[in-house]
Amino acid sequence: MGNPWLDEARARAWQPGSRRGDGLRAEQSRIVLALAAVHAPDRILDLGCGVGDFDALALDHFPRASITCLDGSPIMLDRTREALAGHGARASFVESDLAADWRESVGGAYDVVMSLNAIHHLETAEKRAVYGWCFDVLRPGGLLVLQERVAFDARLWPHVQALWGTRAMDAGSAPIAAPPGMDHAGWLAAERAGGDKPETLALQLGWLREVGFAPVDCFAQLADRVVFGGIKPA
Fold it and tell me: 41-89 pLDDT, tens per residue?
C-alpha cells in the first residue's frame, strides 16, 4: 500500500485530534519540543509535516529558528503553507515522498530532525533508509527525535490494552481502544489495512545505532505511543 495521504478526501478531511489516542499525541508533541529545546535549534527539519499544526508550535516555541517542512502529499503541504503563512521566510517546503531520497532537496546541517507519526507508514527497508538520511542531514551533535507508533510482542497484548484503558485522553479525543474480541494478530492486520506498519521499539533503536547515532534511547512511552531518537556524535 502506498502513501495513504495521497487520497485527496482523506488529506483534506484530516484534523489534529481526530484519531484514537490523539490526546496523547498532543502531550508527546510537547515532549518533542522540550527535547528539541536542549539543542537551541536554528534549523529544524520536519519529516511528514501533515497540516503544519506542530510546525506552527515549533516556530512559536523557537522564535529564531527556521523549519523545513517535508511531505509527500501536495494537499497536506498546501495546508501546512496556509498554517505557516504568518511566519514568512522562516518556513520552507519540500514535496517529496518520505521513502524517496530527499537529502539533496532539504540540504543539511540541521540542529534537529523530527517526525511525528509519519515513519510508521513506511515499509521496513524504507524506515532503515530514512534513519540513515536523517543522520546525514544532521549537524554533528544534532538530535533526531521521533514521535511514533510501535509494534509490541503478542504476549503483551493484555498489558497494552490495560495501559490504553488507564489513559484519560484530552477533551474531544477518543481514547485508544481495540474493538471487543480483537486479538494481537487482528490489531496488526487492522493497522496494516489502514496504511500503518509499526515496528518494535527495540528493532528501531538498533537501526539508529547501525547508522551511527549514539546514544539512542526512548524518552517517553505509553503502550504503543513512543517518543525516541538519538544524537549524531559531535
Answer: 999 999 999 999 999 999 999 999 999 999 999 999 999 999 999 999 9
Using CB atoms within 10 Å of the CB of residue 52, give its burial: 0 to 12 exposed, 13 to 18 middle, 19+ buried.
buried
DSSP, collapsed to helix, strand or coil, labels residue 234 as coil
From the options 3.30.300.70, 3.40.50.720, 3.40.50.150, 3.90.550.10, give the CATH code of 4-231.
3.40.50.150
Specify whether the CB–CB gap between 38 and 105 falls below 8 A: no
Positive or negative: CA dihedral 76, 78, 83, 84 = positive
Alpha carbons 116 and 48: distance in angstroms, whole number: 7
How many C-beta atoms surround the C-beta of residue 30 within 10 A? 12
pLDDT tens figures, 7-19 = 655 545 555 554 5
Nearest to 206 by CA among 171, 172, 230, 176: 230
Q: How many CA atoms lie within 13 A of 161 on its CB side?
A: 13
For 173, how many CA atoms within 13 A lie in the half-sphere containing its CB?
20
Query: Domain-by-domain residue ranges, the chain?
Result: 4-231
Which residues are paired to 167 by β-bridges?
Answer: none
The pTM score is 0.88
pLDDT, tens only, 153-178? 999 999 998 888 776 544 445 567 78
Q: Quick check: 97 and 72 in contact, CB under 8 A?
A: yes
